Amino acid sequence: MWLPLLGLILGLALGLLTDIQIPAVYENYLSIAVLAALDTLFGGIRAHLQQVYDDKVFVSGFFFNIALAAGLAFLGVHLGVDLYLAAIFAFGVRLFQNIAVIRRILITKWEDRHKNGMKNQ
Amino acid sequence: MNKKIIARITIVSFIIGLMIAIQYNTVQKPTERDTRDIWEVRQELSEEKKRQSELLSEILTLSEDVKEYESSNSKNQGQVLQNTLEELKREAGLSPVSGPGLTLNIRPSMELIEFGYQVEPITPELLIRLVNEIFRFNGLYMEINGQRIVHTTAIRDINGDTTVNSIPINDTEVEIKVITESFEMAEKLYSYLYASGFQDDFYIDNLDLVINKAQDKITITKFDGELVNSYLVEENKGD
């Protein structure tokens, strides 16, 4: 259960300690990629809680979303339209929705457990 | 939870962590952009070259010293050592120096006297700027109203009086003596000071800065107090 958190911390530590920097031009792409990755992660957790998790969907979604978001931003830069805003908006909304669903599922589970515990007593 | 799912999520969160950290690094520490144009770069290059030539001339002087030490016999070595000591004393300000240079005078401006304003002392800031500028422009030794400027000299305000080496300087007449390497340098310094905005800066404070022509020989007194050495300690060599 704590392994994903450990992975996150490990990634953060590695990134901060190695002091890797990317050119400022690509900052936008990375921020969108982070957002896309977060969206996929929470989508995966939600799918798992709803028992509809599919490995292929999760992994392909992770890479595809990142590529799509970066591609959209790239296209936006070349067309002179801030298309990355569309990606930020879409991922932002989905992130909130996913987190809301996860929260509801967890609350329902917790309530069920609580009720069962009362019954058993 | 299925082990496979956990592994997948862990890998994804690791990648997310890495991306966030990289993004953080990039946003927090933007590499400073080099916005200098070709002239600024050239100017910096010329400054560095100047420094290089200064260092080279210093190396030359020191290697001459070394040669002198090596070539002289044991009797003469004492003399050479004495010479070096004298040289060091002169540089530190412990012995009087004379050489080509120029003098500056600071007086209250005529307007101030005519209108009967109160004479204000020279502000330390202005004096420090002048001194720094002169040292920056090849001034070797300097004295303000008989006070030799050494490396510990403080020009500051004490109870409303501008002091040099903790001794108040005269309000109405200040004389600054500067010694340079050569007469040509003194002339250059004269031209430089004349062209710089110092006279205007002094005039704002109702002071006249008189820059006198370069002279062949100017004598500067030695430092009046005792130099305190807080950090240098004599090494005991044991032989």
TrEMBL record, chain A:
Its main location: membrane. Keywords: Cell membrane, Membrane, Transmembrane, Transmembrane helix. The keyword Cell membrane applies. The keyword DNA damage does not apply. It is found in: Cell membrane. It comes from Lysinibacillus composti. This is DUF1290 domain-containing protein. One of its GO terms (cellular component) is plasma membrane. It is a multi-pass membrane protein. It holds the Pfam family DUF1290. Belongs to the sbp family. The chain crosses the membrane at residues 28-45, 57-77, 83-106.
